[in-house]
Amino acid sequence: MTPELSVVVPVYNERDNIAPLVHEIVAALRSRLPFEIVYVDDHSTDDSVQQLKSLQEQVPELRVIRHLVQSGQSTAIRTGVKAARSRWIATLDGDGQNDPADIPKLLEACTSAAAEVRLFAGWRVNRQDSASKRWASRWANAIRSRLLRDDTPDTGCGIKLFEREAFLELPYFDHMHRYLPALMQRAGWRTVSIPVHHRGRTAGVSKYNNLHRAWVGISDLRGVAWLIKRSRIPRAEEL
């Protein structure tokens, strides 16, 4: 059966978070609609791939793709979206901090939304991160919002729902997953932010630090702002 939803999860060295998250996705979706889970392992150095392969025996909806070279989170997401078989894609971070129980909320918003809305972005209203990480995120969101005017309070949230075709038409670059609302709006689509749950890490370690995020964020912001400034949305009809 062709899935109505593809859940794409990028993962790198998250062996202890894989099984709990997969089972939560199944619990949230199996009674609702046909779906698939597409895990993209970004060349983990632990046994994440082995964990995923063993889970495939229990979860027929689970597909596993492995990068032969570590390529980053944005690339892993794009790999999963390209492999997905559904028109609509839900994404989750592989660390378990996003709650799969929020996916139905995004699907309900999609059902009642206007046709031009092609991205439903999670909004972590009660973040369960360290104080320094929350402060850095507020600072980055404020600068991004002022520069890009994307009317999105939280672009860093990993849980999102978007149309596959619209995503694949976006310009691809490393870290693009942090700018999906602005990029979708640049393409002429509308976006909506939906409040979602957020959970603390229970296993593994974060793959980012505040200094790294800030350094790459400055360059990315300048690039996305340039793309928006140079974009043109054509209006045309077939005669």
From TrEMBL:
Keywords: Cell membrane, Glycosyltransferase, Lipopolysaccharide biosynthesis, Membrane, Transferase, Transmembrane, Transmembrane helix. It comes from the Bacteria. Its EC number is 2.4.1.83. GO terms for molecular function: dolichyl-phosphate beta-D-mannosyltransferase activity. The keyword Electron transport does not apply. InterPro entries: Glyco_trans_2-like, Glycosyltransferase_2, Nucleotide-diphossugar_trans. This is Dolichol-phosphate mannosyltransferase. Residues 6-167 form the Glycosyltransferase 2-like domain. Pfam families: Glycos_transf_2. The keyword Phosphoprotein does not apply. The lineage of its organism: Bacteria, Pseudomonadati, Pseudomonadota, Gammaproteobacteria, Lysobacterales.
